[in-house]
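Standup notes
- DV: blocked on the single-chain target, sequence here:
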Amino acid sequence: MNGPRLAATTVLLLLGLCGAPAGAADPVTFGLVMSFSGWFQPIDASTIKGARLAVDEINAAGGVLGHPLKVVEFDNKSEPALGADGAVEVIGKGAKAILLPSDFDFGAPGAFIAQQQNVLAFSGASDPKFGVKGIGNLAYSNSNAAQAQGALMAEWAHDQKGWRTAYVLLDNTISYTKSLCGSFAARWQELAGKDGLLGRDTFQNSDPAITAQRTRIASLPKKPDLIFLCSYAPGGPSAIRQLRSAGIDEPILTGESMDGDYWIGTVPDLSNFFVVDYGSVYGDDPDANINAFFNRYKEKYGERADTSYPLRGYSAVQAYARAAAKAGSIDADKIAAALDTFKDEPLVIGPTTFTKDLHIQVSRPMAIIAVDKGKFHAVGRFSAQKVDLVDY
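- DV (later): unblocked, structure below
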């Protein structure tokens, strides 16, 4: 088999689809109600591109039950309330499923409308509330829960690196960062004891300076082995720059909200920094399927992905198509029932499990990426061993 045919076959197997080539059949409409503009746009942009790539590859492989996927879009302009308007609009255009922003606060307004209208809602939100308990039975996140990310990083730092003391610095602005830091702190104290947590502090993403916070860290009688930072751009990189400029050189660990290297220019020669995400975009992920995906992404868009978020967008559409194929229907309730049977389903983002009670991932392996002198590289893939899905 030649190279192009082998590549096409690989994609078809990954998608898990079959059927006649999509053509004259009526399309199945998939809505993208996302932040195409505004401050949240950099977070959603790669997710959108991943979703579009999935649509192209699914259609090339025969569509959904022989029907091509058609995309309709709405820009919420990084204003959460507009997500509800967007859901109404794309549902009015026939959307059978909607991909919403990758944060509960941003995605929930549209997801509530979708639930009311019996339309499936997908997101990369890392909050378990984007699911059965917070939205309803038609809402699914293909992300790892923030609580799982915090626990994973605590376990990795303690068990793999041998660190024993930590300081938690929380950007107290969104649900994700609160759950991430809360989970890390709880799991860290289980592993290292209460004395292993030397302190906690908070700031706001829009704060121009964290002078008081870094002074408290620098004044500790015993320096922490690590600082666990829960934030996102632009406030997160700003906080890191200020910590380093104050001579605080301890390892900084963080969650997937600081995925990617698009912000690295604001913190020159950053080292001793570790971030957990869905896969390495640098061609060195331990999972060959992740590397192959990002090669296809680069071929389509002519540039390397700047974050791992395309995996979330792609896998949301892929999960919808897989479940429709299993259900033999595009009925939302039947597709939801099929999604709830996923057990380590091999999506591009990794093995994915849903149950009727839990629509987010807690044990799927994630990549840990290290930064040395401004250069990013994969350390390995790890899973959280103990996760408590509580709100912090």
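- Follow-up: Residues 41-60 form the longest helix (20 residues).
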